[in-house]
Amino acid sequence: MNKIILTGDRPTGRLHLGHYVGSLKRRVQLQNSGEYDKIFIMIADAQALTDNADHPEKVRENIIEVALDYLSVGLDPEKSNLFIQSYVTELTELTFYYMNLVTVARLERNPTVKSEIQMRNFEATIPVGFFTYPISQASDITAFKATTVPVGEDQLPMIEQTREIVRKFNAVYGDGKEVLVEPKALVPENSICSRLPGTDGKAKMSKSLGNCIYLSDDAETVRQKVMSMYTDPGHIKVEDPGKVEGNAVFTYLDAFATDESFAEFLPDYKNLDELKDHYRRGGLGDVKVKKFLLNVINKELDPIRQRRAEYEKNIPAVYDILKKGSEAAQLEAAKTLAEVKAAMRINYFDDAELIQAQQEKFNK
Ligand code: TRP
Q1: Which strand (E) or helix (H) includes residue 189?
Q2: Residue 218: exposed, middle, or buried by beta-carbon count in 10 A (0-12, 13-18, 19+)?
Q3: Which sign does the torsion angle of CA 206, 245, 157, 152 carry?
Q4: Which of 124, 139, 250, 253 is buried most deeply by CB count within 10 Å?
C-alpha cells in the first residue's frame, strides 16, 4: 500500500513555535525521509471559516502567511503538495455523504470540539458547520487515502473520528472491499512538543493570549519576547533555588535544546540536566538561561527567516505554487470521490448494469 501523508492548518494567523515543534518540523523530516509516496499539506480555509464566518478577510489574509510559513520551514513544493482546502470542492461532497454515518451524539462527545465550543462561548449558538467540522476533516484525510496524519495531540479525536467513519463506510458500502483507508496519527515523540506553553507560561501558545513567538518574528522581537518570558516567580535573586517545572524557559529548552546546543552556546554545561540541576540548587540567574534559549531559538529560526525573505520577494509565485498544488490535489480527491460514489452505487450514469436492470423491470 502507498504511504501517504495528509495534514494541514487553519489559516487564522501566522504559525508559531508551538506549530513548529508540534508538527511542522516533523513534516519536513518526513518529507525529506523519502519514505512517503505522496505528501499533501493543506491550508484549511474552509475549516477556518467554520468559526470565522463573519471574518472571511481574516482567513483570506492568512492564507499567504501560512503558505510562507510552510515554505520557509522547508516544505518543498517539489516534494510536498501544498494546497488550499476550498479549491477542492470534492471534499465538501464527501462530507455530505459521511454526515449520514455519524450521529449528533458522537459529535457531541468529541473532546476537541467540546473544549473549542467552551473556548468560543458557542454553547447556545454553535454553527452547524463548526459542529460538523470533524466530519469534514475526515473527508480531508480520506480523500487522499492518507495513511499517516502528522498532528499535535489535540487532533487525536479527529483522527479517531475519521477511523470510525472509514470503518462504517467500508462496512456499509464496501462490499468486502476497503474503499477508504484508515489513517494513523503521528504525534510528536517528545510530549512537551505537543503542548508548548505560551511565553507567559499559560497552557498553550495562542494568538488571543498574545503569548506566541512567531516563525516570522524578527530577531529583535524574539529577543524581547524571550527576555520577558515567565520563569519561576519564587526565583528572585540569583542565589535562590529555582523551580524548573512550570518554568516556561525550561519547557522551551526541553523542546529545543540538544547537547549540541550546549557545546555551541553554553559549554560550561554538558546538557540540559546539568543546567536544570544548577538552577534548582541556586546560583544560576534567569538572564543567563534566557540568553541561552534565545541563541537556541535563533539558530532554528535564522534559516527559516532567510527562506521566508526570499519567498516574500515573489508573492505571485507563492500563489502559483498553491494553485498548482490545489489542481493536483483536486485530481486526487476526484478519484476518491468517484470510488465513493461507485461504492454507494450513486454513479448512475456510469452504471450500465443498473440502466439495463431498470430497462428489464419496465419490459415485464
Ligand atoms: N484541525 C486542524 C487544525 O486546527 C486543521 C486540519 C483540517 C487538519 N483538516 C485536517 C489537520 C486534516 C490534519 C488533517 O489545525
Answers
A1: none
A2: exposed
A3: positive
A4: 139
Q: Reply yes or no on whether the pLDDT at 294 is more than 90.
A: yes
**Per-residue pLDDT, 209:** 85
| Nearest C-alpha neighbor of 152 from the set 203, 202, 103 | 203
Closest C-alpha among 54, 49, 51, 85 to residue 67: 85
* Angle formed at CA 30 by CA 213 and CA 65, multiple of 5 degrees: 35
Cβ of 186 closer than 6 Å to ligand 1, yes or no, is no
Q: Is the CB of 50 under 6 A from ligand 1?
A: no
Q: What is the pLDDT of residue 118?
A: 85
Which residue intervals of 231-312 are DSSP H helices? 248-256, 259-265, 272-281, 286-312
Judge if pTM exceeds 0.70. Answer: yes
- Is residue 70's pLDDT more than 90? yes
Nearest atom (ligand 1) to Cα of 158? 1
Which residue bears the cell 494546497? 83
All 3 cell numbers of residue 333?
A: 480527491
